Amino acid sequence: MGTIENLTPFMNFTREEWAKLRQSYPMEVTPEEIERLKGVNDVINMQEVADIYLPLTRLINLHAMASQELYRNRSIFLQKQEKKVPYIIGIAGSVAVGKSTIARVLHTLLSRWDNHPTVDLVTTDGFLYPNAELEKRGIMNKKGFPESYNVHGLLQFLSELKSGKSKVEAPVYSHLTYDIVPGDKQVVSQPDIVIIEGINVLQPPKRPNDEYGDQVYVSDYFDFSIYVDAAEENILHWYVERFKTLRETAFKNPASYFKKYAELNDEEAYRTASDIWERINRKNLHENILPTRHRADLILRKGDHHLVSEIKMRKV
Fold this sequence. Notes:
Elements: E1 10-14, H1 15-19, H2 31-37, H3 46-78, E2 87-93, H4 99-110, E3 119-123, H5 131-137, H6 151-162, E4 168-174, E5 179-188, E6 193-197, E7 224-230, H7 232-248, H8 266-289, E8 298-302, E9 308-314
Parallel strand pairs: 2-6, 2-7, 3-6, 7-8
Antiparallel strand pairs: 1-9, 4-5, 8-9
């Protein structure tokens, strides 16, 4: 009789086991490029790319090619040529866990496949309501929670992508001004692959009697999804350290929404960042983000120093 471990829908890989799956896949990036791709206080290096992200790229390549083959066979079966639609990858996880860096690394690696696919990266920050609307709704202190997003707009964007529309537009968000950039748009023009990165992208739909209406949500449009995981004490540490670094850099910009924090000393910065984490980000993590972890196709578990220590992959 099988043990309870055999009943899990995931296959577990250690870092060493996963690294072997790279095989002979070539390294197509330089250390200088990787340095430019990483976020504030993130740790990413050539060894991490070789051990973790090149095997992941091979896996996604296999999935995407299988999807393309299915598309071709469906067209033959239906005797009708359907419009080309992109393969969509979703990346979810907590604030400060390193999603944005992973998204940028995958964007770079995937675009360098032998067939040179066109790859676009879209963050769901652009679908946050403008600050004025958040203030009007009284939820400025819940920015990043599901109710702070224009879910209808995000679903419309994804629906147009998957319908094969030639050009689809997404709003643009500025982390400097902490707000939507008025009149600015990101144009996505029939790419082969689109990466959608955001903290709540794996959340299931609300019930029909709730605000969001239909039983459709963002992840329904994903072909492959990734959850970036880590111990909460690590995420808190990374969040505080990032806050301290931003205090010395971006917060000093007069246009920064957070310029009031630029002159905090180390102790004040630690207390402020910890308070923001406890009141907002920890609450959002436990209520909305962490419960979606096992909806992903693949979970990257980070250990200390932002390095991936374990991978869980959903069984096909």
